[in-house]
Amino acid sequence: MTEHERLVTLLATRSARRGQFVLASGRSSTLYIDARLTTMSPDGLALIGSLGLALLDERGWDVDCVGGLTLGADPIAYAISYASACSGRPRRAFTVRKEAKTHGTGKRIEGPFMRGDRVAIVEDVITTGGSALRAIDAVRAEGGTVAGVLALVDREEGGRETIEAQGIPVAALVRAHDIVARLGPVTP
């Protein structure tokens, strides 16, 4: 089994559920993907780190760091950063807060992000693209340049197209149809 097939299997067995759900976007769905059950596990982190780093290189996104909107993006960014440590081109990780801190330095972006950095925004699950767009806005406001958005899962519900309409390329490690295929048929 390839690393990609192992990742799809992990997502299907650990993170995907069928039923009636309301997503963070407010949409209703019969498929829920709680990616954290995979992204916060050792085997999931190992796969995501190496596959994410390979996808960045494949796309030619020569980035200084990776990160996105907390909480979903955090383990993905850390896994990719860790995997890059021995790559000859280490990438730093950062976190975008949903709101700027009201104490201390008042930062919205935490970690070693620096003005002028070229970044890849990471996302656990893209549905509408809203979280990635919020992270893009925060990075741009702090003087960063966005090379693209790397998603763990593209739900294939228009989010990719929304982001790409803003001139930002999107790459996904897994698509929802890959996960659904591993779930098998719906039983009554």
Q: What do the pLDDT scores average to?
A: 94
Estimate percent helicity: 25-40%
The largest β sheet comes out as: 6 strands, mixed
Extract low-pLDDT stretches: none
CATH hierarchy, class of the domain at 45-175: Alpha Beta
From the helix content, strand content and strand pairing, which structural class follows? alpha/beta
* Secondary structure tally: strands: 8
Strands of the widest sheet, in order across it, are 5-4-3-6-7-8
CATH architecture of the domain at 45-175: 3-Layer(aba) Sandwich
Order of helices and strands: HEEHHEHEEEHEHEH
Shape: globular
In terms of topology, how is this protein built?
Elements: H1 3-15, E1 16-22, E2 28-33, H2 36-39, H3 42-59, E3 65-69, H4 74-84, E4 92-96, E5 109-110, E6 118-126, H5 130-141, E7 145-154, H6 159-164, E8 170-175, H7 176-183
Parallel strand pairs: 3-4, 3-6, 6-7, 7-8
Antiparallel strand pairs: 1-2, 4-5
Helix pairs in contact: 1-3, 1-7, 3-4
Provide a descriptive summary of the structure in words:
The chain is an alpha/beta fold and 188 residues long. The protein has a domain at 45-175: Rossmann fold (3-Layer(aba) Sandwich), CATH 3.40.50. 38% of the residues lie in helices and 27% in strands. It contains seven helices and eight strands; from the N terminus they run H-E-E-H-H-E-H-E-E-E-H-E-H-E-H. It has a six-stranded mixed beta sheet, sandwiched between helices. Strands 1-2 form a two-stranded antiparallel ribbon. The longest helix is centred in the N-terminal third of the chain and has 18 residues, at 42-59. The two termini are 31 Å apart. The mean pLDDT is 94.
